[in-house]
């Protein structure tokens, strides 16, 4: 693994952290005051900052730092996360996300935006916090974007590198320092080791050392964990006093340390035994530092050990070595078991896609196999048949399991929407709250990827057109803050996404007028409320009198509808004036397979998605009524329903077939109305693997996709909504013809 | 004999950086994702030095360090705290919990190795 790969991991992780951050902030916004939520939010920003620092992404670090500082105020209860505070934080989360994106893909975030938020964040941190402690901290990053940690106690960690101890330093001035060093027992209990500190000190220059063993008690009264030794060191080095002190950086709380220039220290020198410090004793030593102090002390108490510290260290090394080998053996066994934690694995999406495609082929192959066995084996009781049935079941299960691998919760898409709501609401000066429900509803990744765009557009629309301005809302006796609810749930093998706003609802008068102006309907058309509402999905329709920056990006609801239909989905609207609108989208859980009814139309085999079919019936001659020149209705349980000859609509035949000879499929179109689709015969129901027609051929109106049937033949999958639309339309559109497909 | 380092950090990015840096420097590296896992892994791996983050879910660095120091067998293992905290209070808490030293982020491979060298023989 190289740095670039780690950077890739970093950006992936950022995405996760940003999602965590946003959902945490939204929870806080909803009044959640669980400290763990605050911690998670803090951790997310903290992690991003940490990683960004490692890659030198200074802009990101600087902003994350300010953000983190303010979050820390929340964490330590110095700042109450009220709505105003959270508004700034949510905006900051957006900027942070943008900074991450820019760091990855290049580009830059508007500096004014970042700077403005930095100010707001700092104001929050300063406003509520004790000014003495917080003010300088918050102000710092703005001035110096690279976080160079210093702290208020005056402690400054000094990066310690050996690189600077080059040979050419001999020409520098040499200083002599007298160092007195007396560790406390805490120094050892925290895993520090006097010998190592002395070793590091010795690397700074020439030194002589004396061990002060005055406090060493008799062996029997000795506490193995106490600290009895002190050292006096005289060192000559080109380094400054601070650099000498820096050696004891980790230990400075746990020892008595005194560093003086030789000149000032001279007078008070105590008699001591100078001992050459032997560095080699420490080299090549295994590091199992199990109670080094105790051993050092024990050895040193033996009379002859008074000679040198180095010897004592040597002895400690020997002892440690034997202790270490014993421990290592026992340790080895547990290591493997302990590290096997984790319930998820990451798999490259390509691999999953390949697997899904292969399973698709398997399903087709299995169907073909079944078919040929049935054709060649008429008695139908052979063991081959039994085996095939099991194979079919297994194939189905494999397919379901494989599809489940690619299933993802809609959460990330929903989270993106909350940002869009914030931004657009800010832009148009509205107050809007986004409530999400059922974010953990799972759906195939391919579907998730494709719903983001239409959903974004619908959300923009809801904010821009749906919710009224705060003044208008107040005048209407509503909460000035509008609510948009986004929910997802599974329903009968599909995912249902609802977008509900509590705005003004569809202004039917205006919609109708607009449709008339745009020649979409004739001025005297008599339309139901529902039909008027659905006009907003008509191509070329836009209700906003002036096309705003927000929703008028050249796409209307017709594009939204088309893209949802392209997914095999449906969209409908219901609206109540003054109370708001509800958009309902129903989408397949996967774009890979489909449960369909296989039918025959004019000698062609077609597949009708099962989800569209309400019921099937055999029309009787008495139920068919002619209506106008070539329209027919079928009466079903005392209501009339337009009859649509699929063969005629698709131009399979020139004249309408006699309905009595065929079968009617009662379907519900997304407009809410029912239509009876006439087909010649039903062959059966089966699951088919969807093969894109666009990818392999070209888009054919009225046809959603294609599939390969068990007998190896290609069958087209009917686009029910398009067929119904064409039948409802004033005339068949010229391109609404299958002539192109032969 | 390779020195063994146990790293405890919840960030995948930092874990990978630690792994690459330590392996390149000739250390054997064992990794855990939070304090709880760190204490579990510790039992079997007998590290020469531990490098831990502070902010972690489930069990943070302070709790982890205290846990190590309470463990009869491993209480003398040097522990380095990997931290972006410039806050003296946090450093103090880590020290009180029993940290041996610290490495201030941004993550810098040279700094990390130096700090490890300082606390191990």
UniProtKB/TrEMBL annotation, chain B:
Q: State the source organism's domain of life.
A: Bacteria
InterPro entries recorded: Bact_response_regulator, CheY-like_superfamily, Sig_transdc_resp-reg_receiver
Gene3D superfamilies in the record: 3.40.50.2300
Q: Which UniProt keywords apply?
A: Phosphoprotein
* Name of the featured protein: Response regulator
One GO BP on record is: phosphorelay signal transduction system
Modified positions (4-aspartylphosphate) are 53
Determine if Phosphoprotein is one of this entry's keywords. yes
Q: Does the keyword Isomerase apply?
A: no
Domain (Response regulatory): residue spans on this chain: 4-120
């Amino acid at each position: 693994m190289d740095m670039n790969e780690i950077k890739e991991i970093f950006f992936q992780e950022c995405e996760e952290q940003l999602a965590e951050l946003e959902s945490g902030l939204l929870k806080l916004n909803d009044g959640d005051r669980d400290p763990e939520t605050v911690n998670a939010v803090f951790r997310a920003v903290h992690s991003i900052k940490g990683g960004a620092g490692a890659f030198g992404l200074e802009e990101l670090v600087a902003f994350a730092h300010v953000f983190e500082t303010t979050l820390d105020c929340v964490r330590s209860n110095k700042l109450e996360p009220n709505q105003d505070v959270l508004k700034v934080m949510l905006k900051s989360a957006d900027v942070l996300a943008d900074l991450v994106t820019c760091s990855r893909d290049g580009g830059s975030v508007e500096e004014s935006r970042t700077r403005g938020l930095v100010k707001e964040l700092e104001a929050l941190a300063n406003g509520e916090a004790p000014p003495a402690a917080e003010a300088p901290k918050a102000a710092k990053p703005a001035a110096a974007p690279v976080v160079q940690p210093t702290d208020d106690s005056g402690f400054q960690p000094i990066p310690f590198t050996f690189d600077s101890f080059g040979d050419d330093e001999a020409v520098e001035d040499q200083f002599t320092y007298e160092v007195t060093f007396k560790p406390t027992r805490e120094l050892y209990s925290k895993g520090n080791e006097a010998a190592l500190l002395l070793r590091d000190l010795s690397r700074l220059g020439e030194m002589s050392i004396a061990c002060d063993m005055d406090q060493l008690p008799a062996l029997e009264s000795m506490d193995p964990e106490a600290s009895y030794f002190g050292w006096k060191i005289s060192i000559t080095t080109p380094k400054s006093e601070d650099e000498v002190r820096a050696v004891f950086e980790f230990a400075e709380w746990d020892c008595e340390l005194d560093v003086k220039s030789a000149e000032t220290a001279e007078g008070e020198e105590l008699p001591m035994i100078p001992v050459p410090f032997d560095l080699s004793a420490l080299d090549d030593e295994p590091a199992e530092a199990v109670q080094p102090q105790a051993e050092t002390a024990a050895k040193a108490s033996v009379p002859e050990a008074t000679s040198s510290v180095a010897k004592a260290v040597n002895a400690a090394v020997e002892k440690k070595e034997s202790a270490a080998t014993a421990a290592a053996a026992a340790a080895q066994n547990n290591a493997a078991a302990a590290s096997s934690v984790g319930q998820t694995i990451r798999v490259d999406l390509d691999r999953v896609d390949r697997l899904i495609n292969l399973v698709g082929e398997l399903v087709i192959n299995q169907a073909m196999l079944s078919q040929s066995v049935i054709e060649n084996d008429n008695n139908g009781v052979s063991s081959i048949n039994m085996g095939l049935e099991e194979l079919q079941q297994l194939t189905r299960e494999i397919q379901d399991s494989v599809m489940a691998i690619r299933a993802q919760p809609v959460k990330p898409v929903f989270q993106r929407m909350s940002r869009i709501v914030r931004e657009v609401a800010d832009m148009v000066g509205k107050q809007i709250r986004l409530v999400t429900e059922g974010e953990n509803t799972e759906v195939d990744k391919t579907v998730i990827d494709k719903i983001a765009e239409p959903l974004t557009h619908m959300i923009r629309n809801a904010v821009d057109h749906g919710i009224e301005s705060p003044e208008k809302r107040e005048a209407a006796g509503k909460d000035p803050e509008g609510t948009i609810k986004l929910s997802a749930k599974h329903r009968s093998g599909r995912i249902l996404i609802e977008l509900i706003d509590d705005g003004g609802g569809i202004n039917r008068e205006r919609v109708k007028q607009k449709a008339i102006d745009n020649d979409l309907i004739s001025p005297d058309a008599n339309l139901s409320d529902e039909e008027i509402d659905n006009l907003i999905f008509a191509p070329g329709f836009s209700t906003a009198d002036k096309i705003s920056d927000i929703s008028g990006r050249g796409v209307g609801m017709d594009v939204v509808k088309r893209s949802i239909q392209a997914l095999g989905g449906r969209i409908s609207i219901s609206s109540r004036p003054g109370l708001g609108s509800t958009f309902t989208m129903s989408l397949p859980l996967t774009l890979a397979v489909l449960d369909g009814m296989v039918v025959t139309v004019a000698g062609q085999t077609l597949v009708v998605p099962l989800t569209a079919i309400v019921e099937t019936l055999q029309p009787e001659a008495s139920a068919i009524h002619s209506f106008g020149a070539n329209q027919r209705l079928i009466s079903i349980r005392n209501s009339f329903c337009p009859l649509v000859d699929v063969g005629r609509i698709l131009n399979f035949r020139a004249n309408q077939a006699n309905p009595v000879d065929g079968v009617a499929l009662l379907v519900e179109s997304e407009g809410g109305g029912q239509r009876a689709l006439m087909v010649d015969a039903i062959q059966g129901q089966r699951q088919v693997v969807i093969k894109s027609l666009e990818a392999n051929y070209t888009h054919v109106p009225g046809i959603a996709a294609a599939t390969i049937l068990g007998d190896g033949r290609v069958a087209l999958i009917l686009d029910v909504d398009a067929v119904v639309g064409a039948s409802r339309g004033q005339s068949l559109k010229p391109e609404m013809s299958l002539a192109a497909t032969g | 004999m390779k020195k063994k380092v146990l790293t405890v950090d919840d960030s995948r990015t930092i874990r990978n950086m630690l792994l690459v840096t330590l392996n390149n420097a000739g250390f054997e590296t064992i990794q855990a994702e939070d304090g709880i896992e760190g204490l579990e892994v510790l039992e079997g791996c007998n590290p020469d030095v531990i490098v831990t983050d502070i902010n972690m879910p489930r069990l943070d660095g302070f709790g982890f360090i205290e846990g190590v120091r309470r463990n009869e067998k491993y209480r003398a293992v040097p522990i380095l705290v990997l931290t972006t905290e410039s806050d003296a209070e946090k450093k103090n808490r880590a020290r009180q919990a029993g940290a041996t030293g610290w490495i201030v982020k941004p993550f810098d491979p040279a700094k990390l190795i130096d700090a490890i060298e300082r606390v191990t023989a």
